[in-house]
Amino acid sequence: xxxxxxxxxxxxxxxxxGSNSFSNKSQENIVNLSKSISQDLITKSVNVLFIGFNExxxxxxxxxxxxxxxxxxxxxxxxxxxxxxxxxxxxEQLGKTNIVMLVGGGNSxxxxxxxxxxxxxxxxxxxxxxxxxxxxxxxxxxQDKVIIILYEKVVIHKFDDLxxxxxxxxxxNPDGLGDISGQSGYQVLAIPGNKIGDLRIEMLDTNKSYIIxxxxxxxxxxxxxxxxxxxxxxxxxxxxxRIWDTRRGKILRELRRGIEPVNILSLAFxxxxxxxxxxxDKGTAHVYSLIPREDAMEYEKNRxxxxxxxxxxxxxxxxxxxxxxxxxxxSGATSICGFIPGDKSTLMIITKIxxxxxxxxxxxxxxxxxxxxxxxxxx
Length: 379
Fold this sequence. Notes:
Helices cover 6% and strands 46% of the residues. The protein is built from three helices and 31 strands. The protein has helices at residues 24-34, 37-44, 315-319, and strands spanning 13-16, 48-53, 59-64, 67-73, 76-83, 88-93, 99-104, 115-120, 125-131, 138-142, 145-149, 153-158, 164-169, 179-180, 188-192, 198-203, 209-213, 219-224, 230-235, 240-245, 250-256, 264-269, 275-280, 284-289, 303-304, 321-322, 325-328, 335-339, 346-351, 355-362, 367-375. A hairpin with a 5-residue loop joins strand 16 (198-203) and strand 17.
C-alpha cells in the first residue's frame, strides 16, 4: 500500500543543480520541503541514528532519536513519518508498503533493543513484536519472512504468524551482517559462517547450502543482488571485494578497492547487475562494471594493472580488477550507496550526517557528475 501522509514538519532541504533524472515536479516538491526545515530541526534537535534503503532502493528511511522517516526517492517526497518520545536505532521497510520493523536505539530507546516491533503506519499502531534474549543487531524482511540478526545467531520467522522457520549459529556478528534476496521462487540467505571470514549461503527454497571461505579477516559487508544469484563480500581490511556465484559457491570476480585498509560501509548492485558501488569511511565511492569483459565496450571495462604479467608472483594484487570510476563524497561522512531503480547511470550516496548526493555516471567520458544534493542538516 502506497500511502503519503502530509506533515507539518519536514525533514529534508535541497540544493538543486539540475538533472535529467528528476522531473520539474519533483524539484518543486523538494524546494517546497526546504522552506520549513531549518527552524523545524533547530527546535526538535533531531539526531540520525540509522539510515537504510528498502530492497530495490526506491525508498530511503532513517531512525532518529525521536522517531523515524520514510521517503520515496524518485520522485522525491515524504512517504510517512512518526514522532516518538524515544529513539529508533534500526528500521526496515517491507517492500514499498506502510509496514516497517522497528528496534529501539539511542540514549533513550522507544522500544527495548532486544525487541523487534512490527509497525503499521497506515493504522498508526504496533501490530506485534518479537522479543529475544540478546540485542538485535539487524533486521531484514522479504515478502513472507522476517530475518532477525543477533550477535551470534540468525533467526527466520514467517511473516504472517511469526512462527519460527529456522535459526543458524554464526561467527560473532556485532554489525548485524546478512542479506536475503527479494525474488520469490529463488530466496537466498547470505550470513556469516561459523569461522572468521566464512560466508554461509542458504537456498531457502531448496534447502541447499554452501560454506565459502570468503576472506582471511572478519567480514565487514555482505550484499546479495536482487535475484540472489550473486553475493558481494568485503572484509574488515577493506581492500578486496569478492563476487560469489550463490548457485555454485564459486568466485566470479575479485575487485580491488585500494591497498590501504579502510572500513567498507556499503555495497550496492544495480537492478540489472551491470555495476557495483562501494562506499568507505575514507569519504570515497568506487563503481565497478559487472558486465563480462568479453561483452563490454572498452569504456565499460574495469581497469587492470599494467603489471599483470607479475600476477604469478603476487596473484591477488595483479589479477584483481580495479574500479571503473571512483570519486569523493564531499562530506567525507559515514554513508550508504544505491542506484536509482531502473537507471544504472544514476547513483545515490546518503550520509549519516544528513546529506544525499545524486551522481550521473558517464563511463564513456570517464566522468561522474554531481547532479543533485538534498540534505537534512543540523542533525
